[in-house]
Specification:
The chain is α+β, with helices and mostly antiparallel strands. The chain has one domain. It contains twelve helices and ten strands. The protein has helices at 15-31, 33-46, 48-52, 56-61, 99-109, 123-127, 167-174, 211-220, 227-235, 275-278, 281-294, 302-305, and strands at 72-77, 83-87, 136-142, 152-159, 184-191, 198-204, 253-259, 267-272, 319-327, 333-338. The protein has a ten-stranded antiparallel β-barrel with strand order 1-2-3-4-5-6-7-8-9-10. Strand 5 (184-191) and strand 6 (198-204) form a beta hairpin. The longest helix is centred in the N-terminal third of the chain and has 17 residues, at 15-31.
């Protein structure tokens, strides 16, 4: 009997997701041992609620950060060699309304000065007295040893329910409404401690957005000149549902503006759920690697981390979002987010 055939299949809820987390440490270590060490220590603290929960199935497969319910998502970007990941803190035992406070506690344990300031300090008030589905996520970034700046930085993502009164904040950062009512819904805010830069994440209601919608969104932040570049990057993928000359491919879309107060130094990103476009995880992985290598770009250890998905051509569940970004005076950016797969995936 081969070693693969002899592996005991573990069908317990959340087992594959937890094995994927454990395997990710080994995959990162092959790429950069220093990053793996930082990741193991930091994720061990940030994921403690999941690691120690008595409800392991719910802890590892009941979240909303990933399509498969896992509480850990990696993001690989052509714009940075940093190791980036997001964690749905709290697990099943801390309600969404308390997760921002939980993040604050964890940040203190991870060495951040408890007196930190910046835009995320407003997030708690914006969530107050409103029902929440997940509350907040914690983004973590580890720099490679040869890069400058703090070795580890954090980003706080806060759910913004429809009832949230954030008109004043939107006006301070973006001015007039981004799109007419019904075309876009604010879903999330993101900010780094000790920074006033804020990222506003919206969901688009259109399944096949018109290019004219993209034109309006880019013009809104003074980035109309980047439209052709951004469209060219999106259309460079061989998607199953290609759009026409006046539309984007049919899929679920979102977008964000990352800006300073008053709209300064804008970065615009458009997000797409890739399972509707590219089929299975393996097909999307191949398309990404071909596109990145063809441009001389890099996605860090994405290839090593996702190797178990290579033959999973017709089933999806580990990839979450493709992100295409543009800013004034910045290179175009491509980012992919993925839940780490286990060494062996059993779909039956």
């Amino acid at each position: 009997m081969s070693s693969v055939a002899g592996i005991t299949r573990d069908h317990r809820p959340g087992a594959a997701q937890r094995r994927g987390f454990e395997r990710s440490i080994e995959a990162i270590a092959r790429h950069d041992p220093g990053l793996a060490s930082a990741f193991a220590r930091t994720s061990g603290i940030a994921l403690r609620d999941c690691l120690t929960s008595a409800r392991q199935g719910k802890a590892w497969s009941g979240g909303v950060l990933n399509r498969n319910g896992a509480p850990l998502e990696f993001s690989f970007s052509t714009m940075s060699d940093d190791l980036r990941y997001t964690i749905e803190v709290g697990g099943p035992d801390i309600p969404p309304e308390r997760r921002l406070a939980r993040i604050d506690t964890l940040l203190g344990e991870l060495g951040l000065d408890p007196g930190w300031a910046g835009i995320p300090r407003q997030f708690q008030d914006l969530q107050r007295n409103t029902p929440l589905a997940y509350g907040a996520w914690l983004g973590i970034r580890h720099k490679r040893a040869w890069t400058s700046g703090p070795a580890t930085t954090f980003k706080i993502y806060a759910e913004m329910p429809k009832a949230a009164a954030i008109t004043a904040l939107l006006t301070d950062y973006l001015g007039a409404p981004v799109l007419p009512d019904g075309e876009a819904q604010l879903a999330l805010l993101g900010g780094t401690p000790d920074s006033d830069r804020c990222e506003f994440y919206f969901e688009l209601s259109q399944a096949r957005p018109a290019v004219s919608t993209l034109t309006r969104l880019l013009a809104r932040s003074g980035l109309a000149a980047r439209q052709d570049d951004l469209l060219g990057l999106i259309r460079s993928f061989h998607f199953r549902r290609d759009g026409g000359p006046d539309t984007l491919p049919e899929a679920q879309y979102g977008f964000s503006y990352s800006v300073q107060p008053g709209g300064g130094d804008p970065v615009f990103s458009i997000f797409v759920l890739p399972s509707a476009l590219a089929g299975g995880d393996g097909y999307l992985r191949r398309e990404l690697l071909i596109s990145v290598l063809g441009r001389g770009w890099s996605l860090g250890c994405y290839g090593a981390l996702t190797q178990p998905l290579a033959q999973r051509l017709f089933q999806s569940g580990f990839h979450n979002m493709l992100t295409f970004s543009a800013g004034a005076g910045r290179a175009l950016g491509l980012q992919v987010s993925v839940s780490p797969p286990p060494e062996f995936i059993h779909d039956d």
